[in-house]
Amino acid sequence: MSSLDQGSSSPLKRFQELTGQIKQYEEILGLVYWDMRTGAPRKGIAQRSEAVGALSSETFRLSTSSEMGELLEKLNEPEQLKQLGEIDRRLVEETTKEYERNRKVPPELYREYVVLTSQAESAWEEAKEKNDFPGFVPYLEKIVAINRQFIELWGVKTTPYDTLLDMYEPGLTTVELDRLFGELRARLVPLAEQIANSQHKPDTSFLEGTFDKEAQKKFSKFILNEMGYDFEAGRLDESVHPFATGLSPGDVRITTRYLPDDITSALFGTIHEGGHALYEQNINPELAGTLLCTGTSMGIHESQSRLWENMIGRSLGFWQRYYPDLQAHFPGQLDGVTVEAFYRGINVVEPSLIRIEADELTYNLHIMIRYEIEKMLFNENLDPRDLPEVWNKKYAEALGVTPATDAEGVLQDVHWSGGAFGYFPSYSLGNMYGAQMIDIAHKELPNLDQQVAAGELLPLKQWLTEQVYQYGKLQQPAEIIERISGKPLQSSYLCDYLENKYKDIYRLE
Amino acid sequence: MSSLDQGSSSPLKRFQELTGQIKQYEEILGLVYWDMRTGAPRKGIAQRSEAVGALSSETFRLSTSSEMGELLEKLNEPEQLKQLGEIDRRLVEETTKEYERNRKVPPELYREYVVLTSQAESAWEEAKEKNDFPGFVPYLEKIVAINRQFIELWGVKTTPYDTLLDMYEPGLTTVELDRLFGELRARLVPLAEQIANSQHKPDTSFLEGTFDKEAQKKFSKFILNEMGYDFEAGRLDESVHPFATGLSPGDVRITTRYLPDDITSALFGTIHEGGHALYEQNINPELAGTLLCTGTSMGIHESQSRLWENMIGRSLGFWQRYYPDLQAHFPGQLDGVTVEAFYRGINVVEPSLIRIEADELTYNLHIMIRYEIEKMLFNENLDPRDLPEVWNKKYAEALGVTPATDAEGVLQDVHWSGGAFGYFPSYSLGNMYGAQMIDIAHKELPNLDQQVAAGELLPLKQWLTEQVYQYGKLQQPAEIIERISGKPLQSSYLCDYLENKYKDIYRLE
């Protein structure tokens, strides 16, 4: 026991208490948001928002209090720091970073931003429904303007947009992302062209039809169970936009959406959110109740959702095991369809307008477009009013499609209404991290393919727990990928994986 | 505008803000409790309890802060008090009472108690399931011990138990309750005997059988709708123990329980909780967000649940209107049963073991037993370990029945696991308040019986809103009953009502 945690009033003990309290409030706020999105009565929302505002402000106040500042100053003294265990040291580091960032924001500006973004989400919903981009512009302009202010307050890293990127993927830069996306583009665009020219297009007609909702729900639960999702530490509900939320390792909730005419929405949505949930359920219990008890970055989080959704959930082996179960859940509906035909059907590649409906390959092009636009907004002062024009031009160039309306163009995603600039790259980072991890997993679990094809998914879950999940925020994204693979993040694993997969499906040379 | 609310730093304004914040935290805590009882994953409960402890403690801290003390001191100056409007004056009065009570409890003790009771509920559930009273004793002993400490800290009123009673029914004393229960006993025990000797026992065999859960759910929703429950300001879920919780007038949630072999459980449980909910949904919007926005006492709250459940929901008129609907929900199952036979069946009187399944008449005897036991616990230092023995003896004496297990005896109710000693009398108070109110309602709404028999329930809801609901905590229970009926609470209305009803059903002299 170090000298720092002697007695109830030691700085370390008080620091643990204070950060623990912040984590507890975050857990409660997480539950309130979950409730708002899964069935809270309409007429209570306005007052609930006020209550959320009050508790969020208190949480912000705690994290920027002068007490917190004094504690961090003491704990950051080199001699004190040396005495801390690994968890406490990392907690001090992470909290210091947050403290310094938050202290630079005047509380009134923070409050204005919280209220603005919570109103903007409804405004965005309405604008999307009515295809009314001009109606959303005033919100977007203010959100971008405040984010530009934040960047000034926080300090510009290399470029202004780098400051935002660092929030979601600590240490990530535009230089690095430009390189990674450049490499992806160089290999994936030609691949997409080869596919477009292939004569061997998968049949997808069997995916159309009406799929019983109760059967979809039952199958979703069955698959989550197979993945090792612990229903005693979570639950599955419905919401318009599927999400996962880790309130604590003992309470990680998933939502999905059952579309009567599209079986793939709930199926892959559930596996995707299930991947996020496995991460949060399997963080080392020693981190429970601390601010380190969550995924280390959005990119690593998306690596888990997208690895389970695509690399496992859209693999042939997976369906060799589970396709008969799926058929049994929808008697008669998939009778004439072989497992190979099903596999090819769920992996069809087609340039499309909507990111969340995109296939595994072109998905990365959707992300690239958003990345380029966000860079323009913050590094080139692009006027938000010009977004539709820029958006449509980029879609035409990269995917050869043009939205007929802004609703299916620039208004399609919720992210910007919440001010989440810098988040989108996480999805492609997730694809790259995931491919790099699964490559190593195949080496360390030589029977992985056979295991998946036999419905033995737990060895992979166990391996990912050991390599990724258990650490929570204890290790940075770059540390994790280097520890696992001996290398920094590379684009080649994802490109190799996609080329292999699609050469087979589309019978390419 | 008084001189007190000038400027943003006026004591009144700050007082409104501070009490508003307390109310907001209470709303959030209410949601967390609702979630814990309707499906929060088991493995997250321990950590959630800690988070609840943290937020409850903060709420407690706010309500006992020196800032609050200073504000109350200023606002309670006679000259200042005179200038306040009705709402603010009552808010100051209520907050002062809470402040003075809470200031006497050391924060550490409070926190310990919150964590203890939130763990004790799960422990009680398990003990009840396993019929393991000894497993629950350690919790009960601690809860009773801390309540004894609270009483010492708050100050003993006449007797220690009076101090607890006052929390649920302000101003109520054991002297008053001894008198009221004495009067009830004098008239209801002979009535129960006459009924036991009657040759005209209702047939209840048709209530046995298997009732489809989905149909029960549908009918529950239908009846709530008929009562004027607003589903845009609430929702109906399931829980082991039905409850209603008013988070705000725009979010008042109900739970019920569907038993496959007992149609009456969900039916009357839903109407009961619906009565609570009508109260909370119809509080004057001017009180929203203030600490006065809730029922004025547990007794008045129970008057609404039990009035709707029994005086309306178990009346012949009600079923003349709704019985055909009920029959239609369960095709064939009630074919040979007339509405009169159904009415008599759901009003059968029989001494039983379980309070929540008791008939309208003997229900009061169940309450009397709990009242006597609670008095023994706090006024005679009864050892909690002796509860099963005392419980079983009293049941044998008062009702002539003896529980075969503690699960159907002393472990049946959740209340004590939450430390709610002094709550039980509210149920019988509710029966008495309700009978007194409905007597006046019949005078002021001369067509009430015909309206109920025609399914016009909204005039009664409207009358109760005007007389009771709108006021929230703005008026005290005694003020309300005196304003409505011109008299203090009396036992005679309930006795008259029960005698009339059962003389008819059992064809008594």
TrEMBL record, chains A, B:
Binding site for Zn(2+): H272, H276, E302
Reaction(s) catalysed (UniProt annotation): Release of a C-terminal amino acid with broad specificity, except for -Pro
Record keywords: Carboxypeptidase, Hydrolase, Metal-binding, Metalloprotease, Protease, Zinc
CDD domains the record matches: M32_Taq
BP terms from Gene Ontology: proteolysis
Matching Pfam families: Peptidase_M32
Cofactor(s), names only, from the UniProt record: Zn(2+)
Entries under Gene3D superfamilies matching the protein: 1.10.1370.30
Record flagged with keyword Zinc: yes
The EC number(s) this enzyme carries: 3.4.17.19
Active site: E273 (proton donor/acceptor)
Cofactor note: Binds 1 zinc ion per subunit.
One Gene Ontology term of the molecular function aspect: metallocarboxypeptidase activity
Superkingdom in the source lineage: Bacteria
InterPro entries from the UniProt entry: Peptidase_M32_Taq
Function comment: Broad specificity carboxypetidase that releases amino acids sequentially from the C-terminus, including neutral, aromatic, polar and basic residues.
Family the entry assigns: Belongs to the peptidase M32 family.
PANTHER family, alphabetized: CARBOXYPEPTIDASE 1, METAL-DEPENDENT CARBOXYPEPTIDASE
Full protein name: Metal-dependent carboxypeptidase
